[in-house]
Amino acid sequence: MISTVSIGLLALLTLSIPVGIVLFLLGFGIDAFFSPFPLIKGLGNLVWSTSNNATLIAIPFFVLLGEILVRSGIAAKTYAALDRWVSWLPGGLVHANVATSTMFSAISGSSVATAATVATVAMPQAEKLGYDAKLFSGAIAAGGTLGIMIPPSINLIVYGFLTQSSIPQLFLAGLLPGLLLALGFMTITVIICMIRPELGGMRRVFPIGEMIRALVQLVPIIILFGAIVGTIYKGWATPTEAAAVGVAGAILIAAYFGGVSLQMISDSVVGTIKITSMIMLVVIGASFLNFTLASAGLGAELKSILDGLGLSPLMTILVVVCIYIVLGFFIETLSLMVVTIPIIVPLIVEQGFDVVWFGILMIVLIEMALISPPVGLNLYVVQGARKSGKMSEVMLGTIPFVIVMLIMVAALIAFPEIALFLPSSLQ
């Protein structure tokens, strides 16, 4: 049955059917052929119970937060400020791509929104200053993936919802690996540009006074991050309440910089509705599919297969990592998460692994899927912002950053404390 479901999923996705609809169609098919009783009769209750959850209200708030920051021009100011601080490194403006992605990730919660924002701002600079198209665009695509690791992360909220684990602990667990990934991206850029200086474009050094003045542009973002994440960690607000605080703070900041208008608010709301509708369709469709898979006995079948292999806990994790890497080539990342979590996570927990730690490991693998052809969303986002050149250039440019992600996967398996240190120390 596992092979049947996988083939069906890939076949429907190749027809360019929206992912949420694919999940519903697969659920209907499994219900008809494998389930012992008609589950479709309970579809209404399932849809309502899945969507009627206070935790998921955080998703549209975080999406709206990102939309406001992008459309009000705050993201562009952040990029310009970080450019003055990191462009002296080998690689020049490439580091501003990573640094801006890191900072924007700390308030947006979305990898696609992060990549789109940085790409829109940065691409004109790359053409003007003569940067290598592959490395420059690859850094933006890879840096954008930090949006689902560094808190607040929409994907971590979905993971916490599906596994009934602590979202504040997941946010804490994602902070250090996210910052280490950003540092790794910058390190690999320095190494490449020391070997091939022509790839990094011109290094620029700004007067110290101009650098200090640029810090003013970063203060609002830092305050906003502190307001969102700090209230969650202190227990003053739930993730949903903190997201609402973040939206209010973003509007105030945008108003201070003169970026608020009726058109901006209207565009932000419309963009939020579109993105949230897509996410919720995928989450609800995946819940129905998971319900039918569980009723058809897929979880038990997968468990028996792994038990039959007689693998050690470490080998089980390595097999799961390989599964996610392969599936990441073909399945959109959010649907990959929601389809596999109810099946994989119980098996992992049964092996004695921490559910929070595995959530962070999964997010790194999902990040890799975001920049893996042919389905990697960030590749298309960056290529769309370029408006010229070949998609293959973006794909090739992400290879060094995929290597950094693989190193992070190995580090998390070897040293789980990388993810668990902050949650355990701040309990």
UniProtKB/TrEMBL annotation:
GO molecular function, a single term: transmembrane transporter activity
Function according to Swiss-Prot or TrEMBL: Part of the tripartite ATP-independent periplasmic (TRAP) transport system.
Main subcellular localisation: membrane
Organism per entry: Cohaesibacter gelatinilyticus
Similarity-based family: Belongs to the TRAP transporter large permease family.
Subunit relationships: The complex comprises the extracytoplasmic solute receptor protein and the two transmembrane proteins.
UniProt name for this protein: TRAP transporter large permease protein
InterPro entries linked to this entry: DctM (IPR010656), TRAP_DctM (IPR004681)
NCBIfam families reported in the protein's UniProt record: dctM
Chain ranges passing through the membrane: 7-34, 54-74, 135-158, 170-195, 215-236, 242-265, 277-298, 310-327, 355-382, 394-415
Topology in the lipid bilayer: Multi-pass membrane protein
Keywords annotated in UniProt: Cell inner membrane, Cell membrane, Membrane, Transmembrane, Transmembrane helix, Transport
One Pfam family here: DctM
Gene Ontology cellular component terms for the protein in this record: plasma membrane
Domain TRAP C4-dicarboxylate transport system permease DctM subunit: 8-418
Subcellular localization: Cell inner membrane
